[in-house]
Amino acid sequence: MVIFQQVGLRYGLGPEVLRDVSFRLESGSFHFLTGASGAGKSSLLSLLYLARVPSRGTVHLFGRDVARVERTALPGLRRRIGTVFQDFRLLDHLSVVDNVALPLRVQGTDEHQVREHAAELLAWVGLGDHLGALPPTLSGGQKQRVAIARAVIGRPQLLIADEPTGNVDDRIAIRLMRLFEELNRLGTTIVIATHNLQLVRESRHPELRLDDGVLTRHAKAA
Q1: Residue 45 pLDDT more than 90?
Q2: What one-character-per-residue DSSP string does 135-151 give?
Q3: pTM over 0.85
């Protein structure tokens, strides 16, 4: 699913923020990405969701070298990736249900199925009574859950989540982790960036750890 080979990344003429990062993620795997603030987690995620290409080394997604993918083919690859951003990136002029339904509409899914599936998923994440609400009226935790529902509604092959439980209480965090686990059982490859080391230890999924741009751990959580 994912192969990084001696990857380096720098912004402009600045120093490298990722250095000689190499790992591979098998299809259907579940990994946590950990590291202190500034360690390079967001930069690594940006390579995974095709926002950037490496400054050196190679990144392969779905068997393709991302640096060699034609620009016209990028939208098709991105549709195979679900992404949950820390800043949510919801569309404020669309209702909650329409934000969540957007990926299915882009795919041309039947409208009845779109509405039904979006409503079911929002109910599952505890927002079944907020279908018509606009994002500016929601709390941070509620926006987080909308963003997660939008990312997973199309059952992506690869799901990337940046601190998905950072704005919710423990009860909702457990519910969201169950959703990620269920998606993983259905075959989705999952990468979750988190500062919550207790979450990592309790889940027992493999951990990718970055320290100052260098991959220092690629193993089961202790």
Answers
A1: yes
A2: GGGS-HHHHHHHHHHHH
A3: yes
62 pLDDT tier (thresholds 50, 70, 90): very high
Q: Distance between CA 172 and CA 169 in Å, rounded? A: 6
Number of Cβ atoms within 10 Å of the Cβ of 1 = 17
Beta strands in the chain (DSSP E): 2-10, 16-25, 30-34, 56-61, 64-65, 81-84, 158-162, 189-193, 206-211, 214-220
Burial class, 115, CB count within 10 angstroms (exposed 0-12 / middle 13-18 / buried 19+): middle
Phi, psi dihedral angles at 214 (to 5 degrees): -115, 135
Long-range contacts of residues 202-206, Cβ cutoff 8 Å, at least 24 apart = 203/30, 203/32, 203/177, 205/30, 205/31, 205/32, 206/29, 206/30, 206/31, 206/32
Q: How far is CA 58 from CA 41, 70, 100, 172, in A?
A: 17, 16, 33, 37
Q: Rounded to 5 degrees, what are φ and ψ at 60?
A: -110, 130
The 10s digit of each residue's pLDDT in 101-150 is 999 998 888 998 999 999 999 998 889 999 999 999 998 889 988 998 99
| Tokens read off for 196 | 């919550």
Chain-centre distance of CA 51, in angstroms? 13
